[in-house]
Structures are given as C-alpha cells and as structure tokens.
Design a protein that fits this description.
This protein is mainly α. The chain has two domains: 39-69; 72-191, no CATH class. The chain contains eight helices and no strands. Helix 3 (76-90) packs parallel to helix 7 (149-166), helix 4 (101-108) packs antiparallel against helix 5 (116-131) and helix 5 packs across helix 7. The protein is extended. The termini are far apart.
Amino acid sequence: MTSGGDLGGTKPKPRPRPDNGLPEENGSSSTQTADQAGAQLGQRAGYALGSLVLVILFSLIFFGIWWRRLFRNYGIAAQIYGRMGVLANWAGIPLQRWQTPYEYIKTVSTITPEETKTLERFGDIYVRELWADPKSPEHPRASGEVKELPSLWKRLQPRFFMYLLRHPYFLRAFPARTWKIVSTFVAKRRARRAFEHDL
C-alpha cells in the first residue's frame, strides 16, 4: 500500500481532446480560410467568364441566322442594298427618304473610299434591276451582270463590318431609344389607369 505522499505525487494522464471537426485555432486556419476564399473567388470568376463566352457565342449564332434570313424575300440586289443600309445606319449613316440610290451610294462610299468604284458598280446594277425593262438587254438579268453581285458584296461586306466596329453608333443611340420606349410605355400605362379611374 502506497503512502499518501506517493499518491499526491502521481500526475494525472492528460485526457485526449475530442475531435469535433473544427480546425485548430492557429495560423494555419487563417491561411486555409484565405486559400478557400481565393479558390471560391476564382471559381466564380470562371463561371462568370464562361457564361459571358456562352452569351457572346449564342448571340453570334443568332445574329448569323438573322443576318442570312434578312431580306431573303427580295432579289439579290435588293438584299445587298438593304443589308448595306442596315450596317450604314448602325454606323450613323442613315438612309434619307429624299435620297436616290445613287445619292445614298455616294454617301455610303465614305465608309470605304477605296471601294468607291465597287459601290458605284453595285449602284448601277441595282438601279437597272429595279427600273430597267426586264425585256431590255440593259437589264442586269438579261446582260448577266447580276452574277457579279455576290462577288461585289463579298468585297464590300467585311469593310462595312470593320467600319461599324470602329464607329458603333448604335451603341450610343441604344440607351436613348430604350429610355424613349420605356417612357412611352409608362406614359401610356398611366393614361390608361387614369382613364379607368375616371370610369
């Protein structure tokens, strides 16, 4: 039997700390938390970038389908003239009602001065296809000049798009038009409510 002094001198064994799944409070926990936050931020940025790429991709696909179907019920000369007008209008060169095709072609030639001759050639074919007698040898279909139109547009279209990218007038006009549409809608809705209230 041991003495009381021996009992008092024995040291109790340390109890093991329960593992509750919580990180220990030291410097590594703060580092781990910062790393996790950085990983989450990078993941969110990746998702946002991927979503943006998908939106741009689907927008380009939609635009390509719409662009190919634009003015498809018209002859090739009218299709080219219409698409040319759309691009020029987006670039800030709208077609005026008083302008003849020759006058408008001359105005549009500022987009690509180096292709002025090509534009003039297109304008001549376009005007004669619209107003020349189909039975006349001067009509582009009779003379075969209508076959030149795809190659003419193939030269002009990239230059129009490049000019549009440098002069995106439609982006500046879009907010104003959107605000005008919204304001008109709100005004009509208020007028309708006032009318119904008066009844």
